[in-house]
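Hey L., structure's done. Input below.
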Amino acid sequence: MLHPSKYISTQKLYVLPCTLYIKPLLRILCYNFDIVMGGREEREWKIFGGRDDHELKFKSYGILILNRPITISPEKMIKLWNEACWRITIDGGTDRWFEFVNQHSLPLSLPNYVTGDFDSIKPKTLEFCQNQDEITVKNTPDQDFTDFDKALDCFVAISEHSGRLDQIFSNINTLARVQLDGFILSQSAITWLLHPGYHRIHIPDYLRSQKVYCGVLPFSEAKVTSKGLKWNLNSNTIKFGGLLSSSNTYDGSPVVEIDTDANIIWTMGCEKY
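Output:
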């Protein structure tokens, strides 16, 4: 393993004013419209753009690296990292990030925020970060929250998830408990919550033509109606132990419409990241 001291930053770091750190949440804003009426949302989700709609495109976002293997390609990581407003590594995710950067010799700026309870980060890595003027290091020792929760006290992030089912559910639970717009990005899928209301999700042509999978999953019991899926829901109740809309796909329509009376999980395959 290469030590962080081997790491050389070749790009100017963009540091946000410190006043932003005291804000409890910074929302990820994608190209969508947000209207709240009587406790119900009307949302227009347009998160794909770039070359032939193959790339995820966010208007303003932060990237967060958890303590999980980084499987996103180096090319995609460069784009996601460079275009992020905030760059955060969480506890042992800091070691994984340095290892990934050194392994692929990536010319990336340092994180501007390192946080967690620091029970999994290597002492030498933590010391290195504490000695960098560009990095704000914040210890969040509350064991009642996961590392992801602690980061979301001041940040919303795109993060890799893979391997452990308990951590996947924990990450999704974090997004639900703070009622926050956020996306969980893995190597080949993106997942986020849809709050009660009406949602229009724009689907790129290549996902429709290739019949890439998608799913509508309950966070709790929810009554859902959909259009644009191969197997639509028609005021059906979805819940664990009952009906799930997994391994679904698209009927060819450019937009999937979903109406729900409770929080639900929308997940969709995308181009391999």
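The radius of gyration is 19 Å. The chain is about 20% helix and 30% strand.

-- N.
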